[in-house]
């Protein structure tokens, strides 16, 4: 299983801030279209990565049973 932690929320918000996008906080991960786009692109890159040993894209690799993209996501505004 390949896992991704809730650091994705922090990373994508940071990437957007670094690019000059007005990000109010980590909650923008759920609402800001630019931040959401960064996350979508990040996952797309992960899925299409070619395993250097097997030459198979991760999305097509039968040895990957599951994907956990975010562990226990929370919106701080709740």
Automatic annotation (TrEMBL):
Q: What chemistry does it catalyse, as a reaction equation? A: Random hydrolysis of (1->4)-beta-D-mannosidic linkages in mannans, galactomannans and glucomannans
Q: SUPFAM superfamilies annotated for this entry? A: (Trans)glycosidases
User: Sorted alphabetically, which keywords does the UniProt record give?
Assistant: Glycosidase, Hydrolase
What EC class does the entry list?
hydrolase
Q: Where is the Glycoside hydrolase family domain?
A: 27-75
Family recorded in the similarity comment: Belongs to the glycosyl hydrolase 5 (cellulase A) family.
Q: PANTHER family from the xrefs?
A: MANNAN ENDO-1,4-BETA-MANNOSIDASE, PTHR31451
Q: What is this protein called?
A: mannan endo-1,4-beta-mannosidase
Task: List the source organism.
Answer: Musa balbisiana
């Amino acid at each position: 299983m390949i896992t991704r932690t809730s650091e994705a929320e922090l990373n994508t918000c940071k990437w957007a801030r670094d690019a000059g996008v007005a990000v109010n906080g980590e909650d923008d991960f759920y609402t800001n279209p630019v931040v959401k786009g960064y996350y979508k692109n990040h996952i797309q890159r992960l899925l299409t990565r070619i395993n250097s040993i097997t030459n198979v894209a991760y999305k097509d690799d039968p040895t990957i049973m599951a994907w956990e993209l975010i562990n226990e996501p929370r919106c701080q505004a709740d």
